[in-house]
Amino acid sequence: MKPFIRLVSLAAVSLALAACSRAPEAPAPQAQDDADYLASIEQWREARETRLRDPDGWLSFAGSGQVSPGAQRVGSGPDNAIVVPGGPGHWGVLHLEADGTLRFDAASDAGVTVNGQAFDTVPLLTQRDEGGPTSVHAGDLRFYVVRTAEVYGWRFRDPASPSLEAFRGVPHFPVDPAWRIDAQWEAFPEPQELQLVTSNGTLDTVRVPGRATFERDGRQYALLPVQEKEDDELFFILGDRSSGKDTYGGGRFLYAALPKDGIVELDFNKAINPPCALNGHVVCPLAPPENRLDLRIDAGETTYPLVK
Known about the structure:
Elements: H1 3-21, H2 29-52, E1 61-66, E2 70-75, E3 82-83, E4 92-96, E5 102-106, E6 113-114, E7 117-118, E8 121-123, E9 136-138, E10 141-148, E11 151-157, H3 162-166, E12 180-197, E13 203-216, E14 219-223, E15 225-226, E16 234-238, E17 252-256, E18 263-267, H4 275-278
Parallel strand pairs: 2-3
Antiparallel strand pairs: 1-11, 2-4, 4-5, 5-8, 6-7, 9-10, 10-11, 12-13, 12-18, 13-14, 15-16, 16-17
């Protein structure tokens, strides 16, 4: 081999070896940001599903119905006015007075308790009352009364409910970082009131502190959030063109941190099914007309298969 050719060959080998030993290039900043974001969404999903698996979560509801004025017997037996799916045949008698006062008279042999104590009769609070609702327990099972507007209803929880036993996670669209949007925030001079229709047809008046606007594909959109108190996070109930097709027809929920420097982050990958989409024994607000967008949002949770 001629010396020049030999030197060139050795140089090529040296360059090849150097290339093989060179440290891999660091990922581009955007790629790393996306990877970190996808990991954060996965972590968020795991936390949400952990909450849904809680025996005291939305999926533990196993019975529900409306409470009529007067006295109604409660129990698992078919001869009761309110038939619950478990526990003693006769729990006792629920009384709803004309002024909205509630009490529960325990059946003598039922063994039911309130706050771990046996009782003969006890006043009941709803979730609208401070310290409520008052739960009547039969072992791990519990019965209580809720109020939506002026409508009273009963709820029954079971930590081994069919919905909880059947839970295998919530389906969702593929995560897309492009659906994490910085929206412009317009605070109202004074909070406005908005009426929401609930899934049982009642009306609920809520507090709206402002408006979030954003652009997508050259069009402007606006959403009104609910905020119970001034320092609470923003709560959006929204519908879009996927509603009733790939997502729950009544809309989805989206929570957002308080605005910062006039910007509120709307991460539609965190759009979730409302509780009534997960369990038919739950009442929840539906998306108002103002928040039904002429836009298909292929992000967040999709339709959940309800347990019959």
